[in-house]
Amino acid sequence: MRKLTQKMTRAWLLTLTVSLFAGFGVSNAQEEATTDPPIAQTPAVPEEVDETKAGYEELIAGQGDTAYAFDFFTTSMLWTVIAAAMVFIMHLGFATLEAGLTQKKNTVNILFKNVWIISVGLLTYALTGFNTHYPGEFNGFFSIGGPIGDLNADGGGTFGYGGVSLAMTGYGDFIFQAMFAATAATIVSGAVAERIKLGFFMIYSTLLVALGYTIAGSWHWGGGFLAQLETPFKDFAGSTVVHGFGGAAALAAVIVLGPRAGKYTSSGVKPILGHSMPLAAIGVFLLFFGWFGFNGGSVLSAAPGPLGLVFTTTALAAAAGCVASIIVSIIVLKKPDLSMALNGLLAGLVSITAGADVVGPWGAVIMGAVGGAIVVFSILFFDKIRMDDPVGAISVHGVCGIWGTIALVFFTTEEAGTFSLMSQLIGVGAVYIFAFVVSLVLCIVGKITFGIRVSDEEEAEGLDIAEHGAPAYAD
Amino acid sequence: MRKLTQKMTRAWLLTLTVSLFAGFGVSNAQEEATTDPPIAQTPAVPEEVDETKAGYEELIAGQGDTAYAFDFFTTSMLWTVIAAAMVFIMHLGFATLEAGLTQKKNTVNILFKNVWIISVGLLTYALTGFNTHYPGEFNGFFSIGGPIGDLNADGGGTFGYGGVSLAMTGYGDFIFQAMFAATAATIVSGAVAERIKLGFFMIYSTLLVALGYTIAGSWHWGGGFLAQLETPFKDFAGSTVVHGFGGAAALAAVIVLGPRAGKYTSSGVKPILGHSMPLAAIGVFLLFFGWFGFNGGSVLSAAPGPLGLVFTTTALAAAAGCVASIIVSIIVLKKPDLSMALNGLLAGLVSITAGADVVGPWGAVIMGAVGGAIVVFSILFFDKIRMDDPVGAISVHGVCGIWGTIALVFFTTEEAGTFSLMSQLIGVGAVYIFAFVVSLVLCIVGKITFGIRVSDEEEAEGLDIAEHGAPAYAD
Amino acid sequence: MRKLTQKMTRAWLLTLTVSLFAGFGVSNAQEEATTDPPIAQTPAVPEEVDETKAGYEELIAGQGDTAYAFDFFTTSMLWTVIAAAMVFIMHLGFATLEAGLTQKKNTVNILFKNVWIISVGLLTYALTGFNTHYPGEFNGFFSIGGPIGDLNADGGGTFGYGGVSLAMTGYGDFIFQAMFAATAATIVSGAVAERIKLGFFMIYSTLLVALGYTIAGSWHWGGGFLAQLETPFKDFAGSTVVHGFGGAAALAAVIVLGPRAGKYTSSGVKPILGHSMPLAAIGVFLLFFGWFGFNGGSVLSAAPGPLGLVFTTTALAAAAGCVASIIVSIIVLKKPDLSMALNGLLAGLVSITAGADVVGPWGAVIMGAVGGAIVVFSILFFDKIRMDDPVGAISVHGVCGIWGTIALVFFTTEEAGTFSLMSQLIGVGAVYIFAFVVSLVLCIVGKITFGIRVSDEEEAEGLDIAEHGAPAYAD
Predict the structure, then answer these.
(1) Which of C171, C206, C282, C286 to mutate to test binding with chain B, by most B CBs within 10 Å of its CB?
(2) Model ipTM value
(3) Does the beta-carbon distance from C111 to B277 stay under 8 Å?
(4) Which of the four CATH numbers 3.30.930.10, 3.60.110.10, 1.10.150.20, 1.10.3430.10 does domain B69-468 have?
(5) Cβ-defined contact of B72 to C77 (cutoff 8 Å)
(6) First-to-last CA distance in chain A?
């Protein structure tokens, strides 16, 4: 069995390698100007002021007609790349959260999956994702793009690339969005943990990120049909497009995969405890930290008014989600449950992500608090219907994604304008159904062909030894 | 006993919820303009340059009379929110440090307390903290403010909000300060770990953050009596106002609470080892990282000269504190003690926090080194007088806070001007006594009414099982 | 034996202390203007707009002739200090990676070494490093500088300090470079883990950082002979100067030190498993995060075009290194090995560091992928020749450093210009040989005098108890 997985994995990895090199062939032709304007490196001694002035004028000149706003653009672009780094660290947050909430014997497997996801996510986003996500020519529904070329060429390194409403360079746009791309697969990773076959998950996550997420994203952020509705679908940083997508895909995968052995017995639900709550807490704090980049970076410039608002609504919604889930878990579960508090905090974050720029601080508090309450009941509900989601990903991302996307219609401030409940429902419906179907098809095809679940013996032994031949903890 | 705690907690949480909604009612009326100026979201295709120019001019126009400095303001505001995120991550640092230096059986409890503190800290700072901290109308001593409204309204989203010396928007000001607010309670959390009753700590920390800290802060940063002294009290980023406040409050709590069972025996002090030094080290590194935001953000703009200086003095003081505590611990304890090295590093950071912008690099080295030496003796001293502080918080924050606040008088550079020893002593005296008294009163009231300490059986069993019904580590 | 170590350590620490104070004496005379221009602190109430304007004009005025670019400079300087903080967090990455990949019984020792390295690295960089690294008067080969003074004085706090190609203040330059300085010693730390004597390592790392690294760096970044070659040596952020230096020094240390007991037996290589893969994964993710500051900060300004490119090439090379090492390890080792995936990711990062600003995205993918493949074979090779490197540091930093430095000649884009293979080989040769020899001499002198390796009993017991008297994990 293990040999089969290896064979599959190997065959497929070779395919990936070939595609990468093929992709390189295509894009190579497009590569011309790289750093525009060229910047001299590391002078030991300060240059003369005159030369300095010339250098600055050269920088400005590189901005063509848009030099008037060069400094605003520079600041905004700086924020974009810092935000990208912050979103990157969310992947460590997801990795440690998932590892902490599952069993010791599957830890290497979980870390491996997460290292894989971010790496292959970045590569495939360069290969096909970016140009699928933001197609130049677009029919509104489906369009697979090719590899990126030199994004600094043809004015891509200047303010003219996106202006005041997308104040970044082409590479800034790419790297920020690339960091988002892997998130959908990461969310699924948590829900299918402790029993999915590694080889299948590597293929599944690659396809989900490379094609599924980018197509759904193109409907909204790529100017597709959701952006073309009479009142366009509103999803600021991705409650639906990112988190909802991941949650709906996770649900389909969990349905096909089935629960972990021993979770649902004739005498009821048997909790399988996470092996390290410090890892889980580290994960949630890092996710909270990274979310400032996720939402804050989605302002798409450093415009001070929106930036301060988005940081504030994001923080307050997280805090309210946490406090609400603590209150609800004390009432319902009769104890202050740490994993509920952690999931409540994340629920608050997912709930505000669609509307972080259009609600006020107290709107954010209510949206987050309701999300934090919902998540407790949702987790209990999915256990009741025997959908085994070890980390609560379907509830946190899927269920609260719906809540956040719809709630903004009611909590938006007067100044921010009005949104259409119908458009929001259409957006949620389209993205969730698409994500569910794509994931379902991938899982069913996988199940029929090589199988998607490890054997009972491997599950009992733990995936670390069964799949990787090494434990996570030695002496 | 556990049931009582739950009842208390539940009752009080309902009160909190009610107040939050009440707060919402009040503030709702104030909510008008939210994002000023409105920024269009995520265009797929770059706009025309002309439109872009119009957009930029609209942004500038939103700054009224202050458009001449829009770009400086934008950069400064960006730094403010990034610094806020860095201060946020200090809360993960505190959580892992505290968890690492205590016993395995209390880890869930410690993580829970820390997730609670940051969440409720953010909410109460929005509810009453911000307007208590920076009162509009002020008698110089006490004033409880109401909830925040729309901080972008009435020019709050422009350079006019604070000018060059507070170059941020209203929301920027709020979120940066809100991240500081919970710090005081976090410091206490470490000192009272492993025996305090969860329900009481949840109430205690809320009140300490919502009222105690914000009132003391208003004396200095809110333009209160410490800012009105002939030579105003100088405390750059809060050696006294934040760290000293927390340390003094911790001392009062430890006095009322008493030491952990078995720590002080007839045959001397029995060390209770921390259960994970990697967690402790992660905590200290994250605190060091976050401190760049704590001190650097306190420049309150991105003014390049002060910013570089503050980063440098902060880093050098931390390094000197660490090296000094290593030297002292080798001499005094006859071994290179890791927990002393970690606490020495933090001691260096606390020692520079009051004067990071007014001393030179070598002044910072000496201030940090002395702090690092002090902390070793202080920790030994508190153990000698049987004040049980599992993580050394009273020494690191309380004792070094005094040192840092006073030392700046002697190490300030000529250019930075002179400070008054008397003003510094008045500031330290006022804040420490106030913090001590508030904490003492809260603890005594708590002790008389519901009790503040878990039972001997619960302490022996560990708070994870006793209070939360779940261990931190399973298989 | 242990007593001897303590005596040594103590004697040497006193020397360090004395030097620090001596350094202070020297520099004190130089300390004059500290914050230029002076910024008022924390006003409670917004000032009048007129005052604000005056304040801004004062800030601009402080920039002398260069006020035209004040805002660009402010943004660039902000990026410099944020990048410094990101490079700082790499030291936590190194600490947790090294701890995770080694045995439980040596964890305190590893954390202690890493806290020591960053602290003493910062101090010695202020004492002699900065002015050795960037000498004013320079013969091209060797020059030891004195302590830093007030770096804001004499226009050091203005754009005139470095102009558009080094758009930061003097303190900005210092703190960013200081964070790099300790890296070389950190790399060695991993390779010599689990058997080196603490006292010796403390001295060794101090000297390596204070003198070795800064001298080698001065050849390239200080305007020394490598910068004076006809086609100057190209090493953007330090594949050779930082990582190669560390790797070569590590090799020399491992040769003198010998392998860990029981690693190489008559029946072959016995793997010694790391005690915590979550710690190792946390380390690699933090290193990836920090590398955005390491490479991105090396742009030395916030120039948008180069910044976006560098973030993109850095991320893609890391991803490609990870995926390539996974493919190779599945083929060669017949399993998907997590530690290889982690080292492959780092290998990709080291491989792009020399040329991150002059290659395109697909050039970066190939450079990273080859690095990721190399590292697997290199680790196996060093085990074959019985060079025991517990974390693979020689392969990751030393071997991939060579690859990255040379490969850029072939992958550079047309726009970025051409580089000389000969210059690259001279640079690699000079730095690697110098690092190797310095490290070899230090280790041989150490071995002859006090000994550099713990006793067999201490190694078997673990360094935590033997050297520090405390375990990393208690109950």
Answers:
(1) C171
(2) 0.91
(3) yes
(4) 1.10.3430.10
(5) no
(6) 29
